[in-house]
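Possible regression after last week's pipeline update?

I re-ran a chain I had predicted before the update to compare outputs. Posting the input and the new output here so someone can diff against the archived version. Not blocking, just want to make sure nothing changed silently.
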Amino acid sequence: MATDRIRLEVIIGSVREGRFGPVVADWFLRRARSNPTFDVGVLDLAHTPLPWDHSDTSEVRRYRRRIDEADAFALVTPEYNHGYPAALKNAIDCAKQEWRAKPVGFVSYGGLSGGLRATEQLRQVVAEVHMVSIRQTVSFHQARKRFGPDGETDDGAAIDGAGRLLEQLEWWADALRVARGHRPYPG
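New output (post-update):
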């Protein structure tokens, strides 16, 4: 791995049994991994046991190190009851300084709203931990109807949005990495 590659962590926010998140995440991961600028990792919260009381366990320390080593994030989130999953909020709250001055993009899915209400709520949360929210989003309305059995979609807005989201993540990750290297973030 070249040191100038951007470490992008894709976080799958749903932990529900029968969740659709892995389908959406795998689609986005194929796009991210096709860009040689990124070194892409996946944090699936269904397989990342984080305590609800935010105690300092070895798993939490490993998780924080991984967050700290990342340059950028993409949160794959469903919308449940007009909001985002509790597991995703817990994952954000289990780290603090590790998020600071790093960009985050959103890939959402759901029913009629396509998860956009969850995304807008998450923008408030990530601002509080000093992340830079990327303007471009990807959203899948009626998500289960948008993907074929091969895990691909012909949703032109999502395909275009994913490309733009990755370009913006790359720009912000590079700019913020240089800034953090020049001077510690004052947050």
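Follow-up from reviewer: compared with the archived run. The domain at 6-181 is CATH 3.40.50.360 (Rossmann fold). Marking as no regression found.
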